Hints:
The chain is mainly alpha-helical.
Amino acid sequence: MGKLDETMFFDFGDNKPNDVRGTLKTVYDALEEKGYNPIDQIVGYLISGDPAYIPRLNDARNLIRKHQRDEIIEELVRYYLADQVAGGKKEKN
Length: 93
């Protein structure tokens, strides 16, 4: 049957982590500018899914809603663990 029997793959590329990082930076800056504790507010959003934790300033609320919460958590864990692993390797040398 040709192409109808083949599995198709879609690759978002490596832009997704950078996109999430950029969004988190924008959100963090907007929260600081509004005088909120950025960590508390982002955690509140990630746990509840309620966008009211994120201000509209600099379009932060719309930007963060473009990402699934699990994608954001995945990127945070990836970034944290990469830093920990790299840090651990540096200490051994």
